[in-house]
Amino acid sequence: MLMAKGKTATVFFCGECGYESSKWMGQCPACKAWNTFVEETVKKPSGAGAVKSAVSSRQEPAVLSSITLKEDERVLTHIGELDRVLGGGIVPGSLVLVGGDPGIGKSTLLLQVCKHLSDDHRKVLYISGEESLKQIKLRALRIGEFTESLLLLCETNLEVIEDVIRRTKPESVVIDSIQTMYSEDIGSAPGSVSQVRESTNLLLQLAKGLGVSVFIVGHVTKEGTVAGPRVLEHMVDTVLYFEGDRHAAYRILRGVKNRFGSTNEIGVFEMRETGLVEVANPSEFMLNGRPQDASGSVVTCSIEGTRPILVEIQALVCRTNFGIPRRQATGTDFNRVNLLMAVLEKRVGLHMSDSDAYVNIAGGMRLSEPAIDLGIALAIVSSFKNRAIDEKLTAFGEIGLSGEVRAVSMAEIRVQEAQKLGFTTCIVPESSLPALKKIKGMKLVGVKSVQEAIDFI
Fold this sequence. Notes:
This protein is of the alpha/beta class. Helices cover 27% and strands 27% of the residues. The chain is built from 12 helices and 21 strands. Strands 6-5-7-8-4-9-10-11-12 form a 9-stranded mixed beta sheet. A 4-stranded mixed beta sheet has the order 13-14-16-15. Strands 2-1-3 form a 3-stranded antiparallel beta sheet. Helix 4 links the parallel strand 5 and strand 6. Helix 9 crosses helix 10. The longest helix has 18 residues.
C-alpha cells in the first residue's frame, strides 16, 4: 500500500501575527486581536520532509570581538532621497519591504534602483510575478538605458527562484510582488497568510545566508497596511511606505521600520514621464502655488527626521447651517484640531461653537508633530476673523491646554530653513529664544501664550 506524500488540512491563521489554530477563534491568543482569523487549506508535508528541513549544516557560535565591519559596507543607490531613508545606503544581506497603493510608483522606483546599481557594474536580478519581460522592457525604456548587469526573470515559483539566485549569485534582488509568490510545499493559494509568511522566510534565509540585498514589493490593504500577516513586517529589516495620491505629481517615501537607521526620515519624489525625480528642496515644492493675501493661510515648519520642511496650513471657518457644526482635518490629527479650537474658545474667547471648521495641510503631507500647533491656531483665527496674515511670516510652537506656547526641538534649524526661503518674521516660543542666534534679515518674535501670538499678527 502506497502512502501519500502529504495530507490536506484546513487551518486558521491570524492575519495580524500569523498564529495558527485548528479552529476559528474570535480573539487571537497571541496578539489579542479580534476577528482576524482566516480559513486556509494547506498541504502538510510528510514526516520525511519535515526531518529533511530540520537537518542543516553545522554552525559554530562566533565571538563578537572577532567580527569585523567595513566602513564602506553600505551600497549607494545614487538616489539621495532613498539613501537618506535607508540610513545611508543598502546594507548587504538586508531584507527591505516596500509598500504602497497600486500605481504609486513602487516598481518604478525599484527599477531605477536596479539601473543605478547595474551602472556600477553590480549584478542585479529583477523578479516579477505580475508583468511579462516585454512589459518590464516597455517600462524600462522610459527610465533610460540599462547595462547587461541587470537580469530579468518572470517567475512565481519560489523553488525555481531560489535555484536561479544560487546559480547567478546577484548582489541585489527585487521581488515584485511577494503576494504573487508561492511554494509548492504549501497547499494554499498565492497571497494567503501561509504563503506570504513562508515566502518571506525563504527570502530571509537567502538574504542572510548569501549576503544578497533583497527588496520585496508588498501590496497594501484599504487600511493602508501591507497585505498579509503582520509578522511579515517583523521579519524584514526595513519597511518603507510610499505615500501620496497617484493622480498627483508628488510622492513621499517614509521609513516606518529600519534596523540600520532612523525611522523618522522621509524622501520626496516627483513623478514624471521619465520616472521618479528627487525633490531637493521639499519646502519650496510644498509652498509652490501658495495664495497671496488670503485669510486662513499660515506657513509653519515641521521636522521630519533631520530635515526641516516648511508647509502651508490652510483653515476655513464659516457659520454652520445645521445644529451641530462640522469639523474636518486633512493631513493632521482630527482630535488635535478639536483640542486647539477648544483652547481658542476657552483661553482666547473666540466663540466658534456655531461654526464649521476645515483644516488642511497643503501639498499632501501628513504631519503629527506638536510644533505645528501654533500654525494651526493662527490659521483658524485668521479665517475666523477674515484677516490675512503677512505672507513673509512663519510660526511654530506647541500649545498647551492653558494656552501657553511651549518650546520645541531644533528651533534654530527651523528658523534657518525659513530664512532660506525668504521669510522675514518668525514667531517662536519665548523659551526657545535664548538658544537662537541672530539671523540677518529675520525678525524673531517670542511669545508665551497663543494670545500674544494673535495680538502680534
